[in-house]
Specification:
Layout lengths: L4 H10 L21 E4 L2 H10 L17 E4 L2 H26 L11 E16 L4 E4 L6 E8 L4 H8 L10 E4 L10 E4 L5 E6 L3 E4 L7 E15 L9 H7 L5
Antiparallel strand pairs: 1-8, 2-3, 3-10, 4-9, 5-8, 5-10, 6-7, 6-9
The structure holds fe (ii) ion (FE2).
Length: 250
């Protein structure tokens, strides 16, 4: 059935990810998991390092890492992390909304309250010759990794490794889809103390071993960003109605 102009306009607004060129020429990448990067403050890195205690709950039975120790965050640490990273996570959420709707939908803090719900957080203590096999994180919408410590002297190992055509020692690699022409399928990150990455929990990733003696310490947190109406009397709306409300103001 043919829709009249008004119905078509309404439909286009609701179906948010219809591509609309804004310029005479555009090159764009509409398909990709979204990764956010932030440099954490030195004081936050120090706080997390000082919070780590070897008596914390052993979280390794839930994880795939072939590493020395994986220690679960306390509830208090979950909260400290969510408070510290909250505003950046909302920037990430905003970017993701815009990206996945081709610029037509954004977060609406005037209508919704957004919340970061932590499922679990943990420290990863990886030493020389240890590694983390390819995996995804289950039970949450998003996950992240932050770097807290590196072995003394790892820069020399990296200087040597970077002479090779494919350096990877101690790096994290994200993998998505499969190799194809004009399509990115993976990326590597060289960890630096203070680096923080947020990514969709179902994005495959792995960590390569390194040779330098000492600890490469990181943390991960699994979490979900949820939105609830500020106006508690508001009746539940369909997904299409919610999407329309979240449309970017033109
Ligand atoms: Fe992981």
């Amino acid at each position: 059935m043919l829709l009249n102009k008004t119905e078509n306009e309404v439909k286009e607004k609701i179906m948010a990810n219809i591509y609309t060129p804004k310029d005479e020429e555009e090159i764009f990448a509409p398909f990709s998991p979204i990764i956010g990067y932030k440099k954490m403050s030195p004081s936050f890195v120090e706080k997390l390092n000082n919070s780590m205690d070897e008596k914390m709950e052993d979280w390794s039975p839930n994880l795939v890492g072939k590493v020395t120790q994986e220690l679960k965050f306390t509830k208090e640490l979950d909260k400290i992390w969510a408070t510290e990273m909250g505003s950046f996570l909302m920037k990430y959420q905003s970017h993701a909304e815009l990206y996945t709707s081709l610029g037509k939908r954004n977060i609406q803090p005037d209508i919704f309250d957004y919340r970061v719900d932590v499922t679990s957080g943990w420290f990863v203590r990886q030493f020389e010759n240890e590694y983390n096999p390819i995996h995804v994180h289950l039970g949450s919408m998003l996950s992240c990794v932050g770097y807290l410590k590196l072995p003394d002297g790892i820069d020399e190992e990296w200087d040597e490794d970077y002479k090779d055509h494919h350096p990877a020692n101690g790096h994290i690699q994200f993998v998505y889809g499969h190799a194809a022409n004009h399509t990115g399928s993976n990326c590597l990150m060289k960890p630096q103390v203070g680096d923080f990455y947020v990514f969709p929990a179902h994005l495959h990733h792995l960590v390569y071993p390194f040779k330098t003696k000492g600890e490469r310490r990181s943390f991960s947190v699994n979490f979900t960003i949820s939105a609830t109406y500020k106006d508690q009397t508001q009746e539940a709306k369909s997904y299409a109605e919610q999407e329309k409300e979240m449309e970017v103001a033109k």
